[in-house]
Amino acid sequence: MDLVVTYGLNFAYSTATLGLIVLGLAVVFGLLGVMNMAHGEFVMLGAYSALMVQQAGLPFVLAIPLAVIVCGALGWLMEWSVIRHLYRRPFDTFLATWGIAILMRKGVEVSFGREYQSVDQSLPGTVSLMGIDYPAYRLVLMAVIVTMFALLFVWYQRSNTGARIKAMVQNPDLAAAVGINTARLSRATFVTGVAIAGLAGVLLAPLVRVEPYMGLDYLLSSFFILVVGGLGTLEGLIIGSSIIGGADVVISAIFDKTAGYLGVLAISILFLWLRPDGIFSRR
Amino acid sequence: MAFSRAAKLTLAALLLAFPLLSDSFTAYQLGLYLLYGMVAQGIALCWGRAGFLPLGQALFFGIGAYLSGAALKADLGWALLIPAFAVACLVPALLAGLVGALVFNRQTGSGPYFSLITLALSMLGFQLANSLSGITGGFNGMTAIPGLPGIDTYETLYFVIVGVLVVSTLVLAHVMRAPFGQLLIAIRENEERLQFFGFRTSMLKAAAFGISGGIAGLAGALYAPHQGIVTPQAVGFVLSAELLIWTAVGGRFGLIGPVAGAVLIGFMAAGLRDSFRYWEVAVALVFILVVLKMPGGISGLFSAALSRFGGGSSTRHEAPTPQLLASKDQRAAPDLRFDTVGVSMGPVRILNGLSFSISRTGIHCIIGPNGAGKTSALNVLTGRLPLGAGEISWRGVSLGNTRPFIAARNGIGRKFQVPSIFPELSVRQNIEIALWANRIGTTEMFSMRPYGWTTQMLGELKIRFPFLMQSDKMAGSLSVGQRQMLDFSMTVLAEPDLVLLDEPCAGLSADETRQMIEAIAAIAGETKATFIIIEHDMQVVERLSDHVLVMHQGALLANGTMTEIRANADVARVYSGGSK
C-alpha cells in the first residue's frame, strides 16, 4: 500500500513538473508555431537565477521575479531582433533559435563555469501523507503547478486577450484586419512563454543539478511531450506529460536511466507513426 | 561550387605539401580538423542539398571511432583492419539510414522532428558511452589506442588523412553531381511534387543521411589512431553542435566550404580559446549571423566575389551522349472506378457517396460549383486525402488510402491548380526530373547517363512552348503562364496513363489559354492517355471534351455529353454554366 502511494505521488510529481516545463514551449510552439530551440536554455537561466539569489544570501522567493525579469527581457530582445522577422519561415526560426541556444549555453558557461552546482531547498523536511513521508517541497510544488494551470486555463478561456490570441492563431491576417495588433500580441505571447520557462527553472532548481547544458534535456522532453499530446490543447499537454513522465519513471525504475531515455524516444517515434498529430490535435 | 578544377588541384597539392611548408605538429593539428571537415561535408549533403538538418552527427563519428579503436587495440594487422574499417563506416551508415527511413517515412519537409530525434540520439549515445564502461572505457574513454600499423601517427598519418579526404570528397562530389544530387535539391525545393513523379522521397533522404553517417564513421575510424583515445565527448552533443557551426560558417552548399570552416575555426580556436575568454560566445554569435544574413557562409562570399570579377565557372556536367527513350505506345485500356467514395475532414463531409467510372481513353472534364469536391476527388485518388468510405480502383488496383508516389507509380500523373515546380532548379533540370520519373533505376541515379535522356514528346513540347529551350533559366523566374506550361509539360513528359489536370488554364491570358488547349488536345491525341480535367471555363470544356461529369456537394450530379449536360434540369438548377 505504501509502495502504491509512493509510486502514485512520484508519478503525479513527474507529470506536474514535466507539465510545468513544457508549458512555456507549448505557448511558443503551439500558439505561435515557433519551434524555440532555446526553450531549455530559458529553464536553465531560471535555475541560475535561483542560484544567484542563493549566493547573494536573499530569500528563495525573490528568484521568481528575478527569473521572470531576466527571461522576459531576453525573450523580448530575442523576439525583437530575430523572431519577428521569421514568423512565416519555420526552418530559419529553428536554426536561429538553435544558434541563440548555443550562445546562451556558452555565455552561462563563461560566467558561471562548466561545473555542476546545487540550490538548497528552502523547504526541507517531509510531510506525513497517507502513511508515508513525502518531501514537503515536492508537495508544495505540485500544489503551485496545479493552481497555476487552473488559473491559466480559466484566463485563456474567459479573457479578452485569450480570445484575441485564439483569433490570431487561427487566422493571423484576418485577426490583423479586424484590428488586433498581432505584432504586439505575438511578442507578448513569446515573452510570456519564455518567462514561464524561466519560472519553471526556478521552481525546479532545488531538485536538479544546475549546469550550463541542463536545458537540452528539458527541450527534448518538452518536444516529445508535444509530439505525443498534440499541439494547442491543455488536455494534450497533460496527457503527454503523464505518458512521457510515466514511461520514464517506470522504465527507469525497472532498468536504468538510459533505458528510460530510450523508452521515451521509442514512444515518440511510435506516435509519429500512429498518431502524427498527437492524441489531441487542434485540427 | 564556383571553384574551377585548377583551383581544386592547387588546394589538394597545398594540403599534401603542408607538412613541408609548416612543422609536423601543425600538420598533426590540421589532420584532426580535416577529419572534422569530412563529417561537416556529410552535414552539408543533408542540410545544404536536401534541406533537412541533422543535429547529432557526432554520434556516427563516435561510433566509427569506438569501432576502429577496438579493432586497433585487438592488434589485428592490415588484413583484418581493412574490413574492420569497412565495418566502422558501414555500421554508422546503416544506423543513419535506418533512423532516416523511420522518421522520413512519416514526415515530409524540414520540420523539427528529425533534427530533435538526431539530437536525442546523440545524447543517448553519450549516456551509453559513459555507462557501458566494459566496452567503451566509460567516462575516461578508450585509451592507449595504437596507431595504424607501419604508419607514424605524427608524421605519415597526415598523408593518409589527406588521401581519404580527397577520395571521400570526390565520391561526394560525384553523388552531388549525379541525378541523385539533383533529386536532393528537388526535395529541398518541393518534396511533394517529387512524390507525384513517383519518387519515394523518404528513401532518398534516408540514403543521403546514410551516406553522411558513413562518411562520419570513416572520419571517426581515422580519429581513433590519430588521437590514441576516444572519450564519450566524441559522440556527444557538444561536438555535434560545433560540427554544425563549422558547416554553416564554411558554407553548407558545397564540399570545400565545410572543410574550410572546420580548419579555420579549428586553428583560430586553438590560438584564441585560452587567451580570449569569450571566444566560444563569439563563435555562437557568428553562427547566428551566418544563418540569418549569409546562408552561403564564407565560401558563398568567395564565389560571389569570384563571379563579380568574371572568374569562377558555372560547372555543369560534361554533355552526356543524348539517348532517345522509346515512348509508351502500348497502353492498356483505362479503368477508373469511384464507388460511393466518402471523405470527411472533422465535421465537414467533403465527398459524400461519389460514384463514377471511366473506361474510355480521351479527355474527360469535371465541372461543378466551388466546394463541390472536384479537387478533393483528385486528392483522394492520389493519396493526398484519406479515404473515409467506399472504394477507389485503377485497373483493378485498389487506391484507397494510397500515397502519392504509389499512385504515380501506377501511372497516375497530376498537375495542381497552382503551378508546382522546382524554383531553384533550371528549366532544363526541371524537365530532366520529369523525364526520370518512373524511368530511373537506383544505379542510374548515380550515373551521368540520365542527363542525356530525351523523348520525342520533349522535342514537340519545345516547339509548342519555345521558352522551354531557355534551359539555363531558373524556373522560379518564369511568369505564371510559363510556370503553368512548364508544370503541364513535366506532367505529361513522365508519360502517365491517367493524367489529372486541375484547372490547367488558371491565371493564363486568352492567348496562353488557346496555346494550352491546343497542347492538351494534341498530346491527348498522340499518347492515347486518359485525361481528367477540372475546369470552370465552359469554352475550354466544350473545345476539349465530349464527356462531362458534373459534381455537386461531394457527389456526382450528372454525367454525359456536353449537349446532355446542357439539357439536364438538375444541372441547370444548381449550376448554370457560363464562360470566364
From TrEMBL, chain A:
Keyword terms, alphabetized: Amino-acid transport, Cell membrane, Membrane, Transmembrane, Transmembrane helix, Transport
InterPro entries (UniProt xref): ABC_transp_permease, BCAA_transport_permease
Pfam families: BPD_transp_2 (PF02653)
Domain of life assignment: Bacteria
Topology versus the membrane: Multi-pass membrane protein
Transmembrane segments: 12-35, 56-78, 136-156, 188-208, 220-246, 258-274
Subcellular localization: Cell membrane
Similarity-based family: Belongs to the binding-protein-dependent transport system permease family. LivHM subfamily.
Protein name: Branched-chain amino acid ABC transporter permease
Organism: Hoeflea alexandrii
Automatic annotation (TrEMBL), chain B:
Transmembrane regions listed in the UniProt entry: 55-72, 78-104, 116-136, 156-176, 197-223, 243-269, 281-306
Membrane topology: Multi-pass membrane protein
Sequence ranges assigned to domain ABC transporter in this UniProt record: 336-578
Coiled coil: none
Record-linked Pfam families: ABC_tran, BPD_transp_2
SUPFAM superfamilies given in the database record: P-loop containing nucleoside triphosphate hydrolases
InterPro entries reported in the protein's UniProt record: ABC_AA/LPS_Transport (IPR051120), ABC_transp_permease (IPR001851), ABC_transporter-like_ATP-bd (IPR003439), ABC_transporter-like_CS (IPR017871), LivM-like (IPR043428), P-loop_NTPase (IPR027417)
Keyword tags: ATP-binding, Cell membrane, Membrane, Nucleotide-binding, Transmembrane, Transmembrane helix, Transport
PANTHER family recorded: CONSERVED COMPONENT OF ABC TRANSPORTER FOR NATURAL AMINO ACIDS-RELATED (PTHR45772), HIGH-AFFINITY BRANCHED-CHAIN AMINO ACID TRANSPORT ATP-BINDING PROTEIN (PTHR45772:SF8)
Protein name: ATP-binding cassette domain-containing protein
Provenance organism: Hoeflea alexandrii
Taxonomic lineage of the native organism: Bacteria, Pseudomonadati, Pseudomonadota, Alphaproteobacteria, Hyphomicrobiales
